[in-house]
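Reproducibility note. Readers wishing to regenerate the assembly model reported in the main text can use the exact inputs given here. Chain order matters: entities are listed in the order in which they were concatenated for prediction.
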Amino acid sequence: MYAFTFHRPQTLRQAVGLLAKNEEAKLLAGGHTLLPTMKLRLAGPPQLVDLSLVDGLSGIELRGRSLSIGAMTRHNDVNTSPVVHEAIPALAKLAGLIGDPAVRHMGTIGGSIANNDPNADYPAACLGLGATIITNKRRIKADDFFTGMFSTALEPAEIITKVSFPIPKKAAYQKFKNQASRFALVGVFVSKRGSDIRLAVTGAGANGVFRVPSFEEALKTRFSPKSLEGMSIPADGMNSDIHGSAEYRAHLVGVLARRAVAEAIGK
Amino acid sequence: MAAVSLTVNGKPVTADVDSRTLLVQLLREQLRLTGTHVGCDTSQCGACVVHVNGRAVKSCTILALQLEGANVLTIEGLAPADGPLHPMQEAFRENHGLQCGYCTPGMIMTAVDMVRRKGHDLDDHTIREELEGNICRCTGYHNIVKAIAAGARAMRHGATAAAAE
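Running the prediction on these inputs yields the following structure tokens for the assembly.
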């Protein structure tokens, strides 16, 4: 690691102040992407701002028809929360598919979506449920938040405080794991809330998480895997690497979308 | 250098560390608790698993400075130095749940955390899923899985015995 100064603010205001003063400073949430990246010297922020002592950043709360999850809430806590299990079981399941038990004790939802790794699970849930990302400055719709691989709409000195998920009638997440890393080679999150149907894909796109309007349209007629029979998406714009070709990933999107819809309707 | 104060195996510790110091380096190099191992140093293998505030974490992926006020338990603190082994340690010995032993401290710390979260009746499938973050390159896992199932059952008896005393 390159040397850095470690800061541990106690309030959001102090954290924002530290970011504003130090342009190259990085926020430390669970650290399970940032620290390995720093160990490889792929990142070398001169300052780290640890958020773990900042009050009010973790916790899970049901507010009317939305589920609100604090940015510093650990994956394990989302996975095991009775509130999440009751409101959005697909989200609890997704959190339990991230990393391994020790990683889930540290990793956070805010860290995951701020990083926007193209193979991460949470971005699919945010986009697939139509979540709102709440920061110290504003509310950002998931549709506007994820702007490309490892890139988001967050501005300098902007900190995610919570994520608010509208509660769907039906939802499911299907993940096809890379056999070695267990990251999503392709993951599909589908949800239905009234006539609003959303289907988001992680792992496959060269530009990060994305929605599939043609699938969503087909599911509007009938929310059943049959509506997606024979459908696939073009291989253009899909990732292609040693783990799978663009064609393979495009094919998996169709397969996993059908499985996700089947799971969502309990079949 | 900055100071950090925490509790390690029940004892208060204050150390001066470089901001880059990882928990595993603090444990091994400054406190000389070398039971916690560094395997991959990339958060994959689990040889470095310890408990922080009661939860299993990978000590190669957490900075010492993040642990101000924290309570850390390592393999050395699982059972008293002059007393019998912890039931999970005993189960690993009984079931020959190791060959070279390098991964064993991390396996045992993960197993104890597994019992805390999943209870005393662990089937093979659960144990294998839960061991996703612990890699052993010798045993083929078979005896590790057996050891954890036996250790989990023995920990229930341990708890009953302690409650009866």
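We highlight two features of this model. The beta strands of chain B are 2-8, 11-17, 49-52, 55-58, 71-73. Residues 142-164 of chain B form the longest helix (23 residues).
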